Amino acid sequence: MIDKTIGFIGSGRVTHIILGGFKKSQFNLRDVVVSDVNIATLNKLKTAFPEISISLNDNTKPATQDFIFLALHPPAIFDVLINIKSYLKPNAILISLAPKLSIKKLSETLSGFSRIVRMIPNAPSIVNCGYNPIVYSNQLTETEKKELTDLFNVLGDYPEVAEEKLEAYAILTAMGPTYFWFQFNELKEIVKGFGLTEQEVKIGIEKMVTGAIKTLFESGLTPEQVIDLIPLRPLHDYEEKIKEAYHTKLESLYKKLKGLT
Predict the structure, then answer these.
(1) Is the separation of the CB atoms in 1 and 26 below 8 Å?
(2) What residues make up the domain containing 195?
(3) Do strands 134-136 and 116-119 pair parallel, antiparallel, or not at all (unpaired)?
(4) Do residues 116 and 93 touch, judged by C-beta distance below 8 A?
(5) Which residue positions in the chain have pLDDT lower than 50?
(6) Domains identified in the chain, total number
(7) Helices (H), the chain
(8) What pLDDT sits at residue 260?
(9) Which residues contact 12 (CB under 8 A, 6 or more apart)?
(10) What is the CATH number of the domain that holds 158?
(11) In this structure, are residues 120 and 98 in contact, taking their beta carbons and an 8 Å threshold?
């Protein structure tokens, strides 16, 4: 059980995902306060999670909590940190959910406050099945890490990784579902038209995806041999275009996140 107060600066998608995971685990949301400059997104969040407190145009309220989730895009973060640094409690822990900005950069902007965690959130956290790589500041004790573990465990897996790998995880796990969800949904609608029920499609896609991943990584076959296991590939004519899109879009985005462009 978490006996700490929690603040979110930013009320967008990632905050909704994390609060959704908390709610699904019957987490007490009455100790959660969320701020934003957009009243529409705040009201939308409040409708979904009535127990939370909201704060319009005032980040000081979440900044005074025990655990503070920084749920903003990187360009908006520096001004916010400058405004809240004097409100952070000495024993508070700031949890940044953004790629690109290192613990060192965040700490420098906070005039040396270094009780910081970085996490790359994964959307399936909303159903407690996330894969959320994290990096702890060396200022945190093992006891404090344990308290955070109790919090992160609600969302799913939380592997501790090297900080320089977080941007790669942003491409892989944070954005990864978007590469497949629209395809899964399209496949679902097509095969429902062939007579399968919603439940049959759900089970079929889940089992197919799980088995496909295990075959690729655990069969002992090369990728080419795995692909060759099925003689009929209906989308074969589109594969090169899809692979080109992966390289063009993802390599460019990774360079941007790492500040290489």
Answers:
(1) no
(2) 176-257
(3) antiparallel
(4) yes
(5) none
(6) 2
(7) 13-24, 39-48, 60-63, 74-84, 103-109, 142-152, 166-169, 176-192, 198-218, 223-227, 239-257
(8) 83
(9) 36, 41, 71
(10) 3.40.50.720
(11) no
State the amino acid at position 76 in one-letter form.
A
pLDDT at 1 (0 to 100): 53
Q: Which residues contact 19 (CB under 8 A, 6 or more apart)?
A: 8, 29, 32, 45, 48, 49, 52
**pLDDT reported for residue 35:** 98
Specify whether 29 is located in the same domain as 157.
yes
Rounded to the nearest 10 degrees, how much is the dihedral formed by the CA atoms of 21, 160, 243, 213? -70
Separation of alpha carbons 84 and 5, rounded Å: 17
Supply φ then ψ for residue 36, to 5 degrees: -170, 165
> Closest Cα partner for 164 from 104, 246, 80?
104
DSSP letter for each residue of 28-58:
-GGGEEEEES-HHHHHHHHHH-TTSEEEET-
Q: What's residue 60's pLDDT?
A: 95
Question: How is residue 85 annotated by DSSP?
Answer: G
Which tokens belong to 68? Answer: 């503070």
From CA 184, how far away is CA 206, in angstroms rounded?
Answer: 10
Verify that 161 and 180 share a domain, yes or no: no
b/e map 89-111, b = 16+ CB within 10 Å: eeebbbbbbbbbbbbeebbebbe
Whether residue 151 sits in one domain with residue 28: yes
213: its two tokens:
């991943």
Judge contact between 130 and 124, C-beta under 8 A: yes
Specify whether the CB–CB gap between 156 and 122 falls below 8 A.
yes
Question: Can you tell me the distance from the alpha carbon of 148 to that of 186, in angstroms, rounded to the nearest whole number?
Answer: 38
Give the pLDDT confidence score for residue 3 in this predicted structure. 81
Query: Cα separation of 128 and 156, whole Å?
Result: 5
